[in-house]
Amino acid sequence: MLDAGSVRREKIHLTGVIQLMVWFRVIVRMTVLVLLAGCASIRNDPVNRPITNAGIAPEIARDDPLHADDLLIGFSFSGGGTRAAAFSFGVLVEADRARLPGGNTAVSLLDRLDFVSGVSGGAVTAAYYGLKKRAALDDFRENFLLRDAEESLTVNLTLASVSRALAGGINDSSNFPRWLDDNLFHGATLGELRTTRRPRIWINASDIYNRTPFVFGATAFNAICSDLNSYPIATAVAASAAVPVVFAPVVLKTFPQDCGSRLPEWIERALRNPNAAPMLKAFAAGIARYRSGTMPYIKLLDGGLVDNFGLSGFTIARLSAETPYGPLTPRQGVALRRMLFLVVDAGRGPAGDWINTVEGPGASDLVVAAADTAIDAGVRASFTAFESTNLEWQTALIRWRCGLSAAERQRLGASPGWNCRDVKFFLGRVSFDQLGAERAASLNAIATRFKLPAAAVDELIAAGGDALRANPTYRAFLGSLR
């Protein structure tokens, strides 16, 4: 028989053996992961095409002009998965109920909508509405919001998925674009969003090398000498929603050797100007790299990384303008009386119980908190820049209009009794926190995933409509038209 001391020694020995076995397994698994990561390579082949005729590059890449009427209306849909898509959809449904002056009859606000910008989940709504127009209001809920858009994705943490994450992304850029195309876009390309001038749709991703926004539009595709019209909508939307690690970057190839057009003068001017706005200067530098040949490939991830409101493109358009009325034409500048631009914000509020203890947050909470901190700081900065830029634009536009001669006014279409000072911009945000603390808390508790219960989807749609209807900026705009 073993005495007490012998038993104790055996227990200690056994415990040590178990610990060694555990550590051995951990080391083996980590070694396997490292080896797999070293061998694995996430390859996302570019699907964009070069412009086959360099002489037509400027025409293909030109920006379509806006309608020359007295209203300029834009929406920007934030990121946030299906939560953001449903909330922004509710805003569209409510906006369709509003009636605005339109000749001899009243028309829906959607008939006068000029711009829709979208990021991630908001990009899904923006692109689908841009493609199908009012018909999207009839089937978007069933075709997307109630569907499991994650069914094509790897979302569980396994040895294989961790290996792929270490190699650049758990999911490559094939499955999610294919799912979007099969269920929503059915082979449609960005060219089909440009067949009508109203509304213009901007899908926003992030260029993770230049750390700048990437808008799937004329400026970027002209710079890389690629055919914008043939690029799949589904792939652009997938790039806008490509959360780091969950997705590998979507890749674009540049074709600078095929270009026969020059970059816009404002890019050179911004690069030469040491006092240019940092946002404008960084964007111009990125565009210049595309054309110079120093960036053969562009790597794109979720648009929320640099601008979760999707406002940078609009701010840059104004900052790069050479005239008091730009990016409008002179005739548009004379006709304009009211501008409404609303950011539809489905972003998350602060969450987590680790503020109640000295310890924490833990690793997972820390990563989420750090990402949310960066995104929230970015959206506040982007909205502030957008707001200040547009208020300065309003002042410059009025000064220019009031400086026109009688002959210039007549030439640009000013009607008798035209008031040069009758221009007002309405800039605002539609968000959960404008619905009261209790309802905002309930909405904030809904996950930012691409798979939600039907009850949550309907709650978000209703919230979007209620938030727009009660929004003071929106109400003031409507009141100014009466």
Q: Layout of SSEs?
A:
Elements: H1 4-39, H2 57-61, E1 71-77, H3 81-95, E2 99-102, E3 105-108, E4 113-119, H4 121-132, H5 136-145, H6 159-167, H7 175-185, E5 200-207, E6 212-215, H8 218-223, H9 233-240, E7 250-253, H10 265-272, H11 278-292, E8 297-302, H12 304-307, H13 312-319, H14 330-335, E9 338-345, H15 363-402, H16 406-411, E10 424-431, H17 437-444, H18 454-470, H19 472-480
Parallel strand pairs: 1-4, 1-9, 4-5, 9-10
Antiparallel strand pairs: 2-3, 5-6, 5-8, 7-8
Structure description:
The protein is of the alpha/beta class. Helix content is 48%, strand content 12%. It has 19 helices and ten strands. The strands form two sheets. Strands 1, 4, 5, 6, 7, 8, 9 and 10 form an eight-stranded mixed sheet that branches. Strands 2-3 form a two-stranded antiparallel ribbon. Strand 2 and strand 3 form a beta hairpin. Helix 3 runs antiparallel to helix 5. The chain is globular and about 75 Å long.
Which residues sit in consecutive blocks of at least 5 with pLDDT less than 50? 1-18, 20-24, 34-39, 54-66
Percentage beta strand: 5-15%
Class per helix and strand makeup = alpha/beta
Order of helices and strands: HHEHEEEHHHHEEHHEHHEHHHEHHEHHH
Query: Considering DSSP H and I runs of 4 or more, what fraction of the residues is helical?
Result: 40-55%
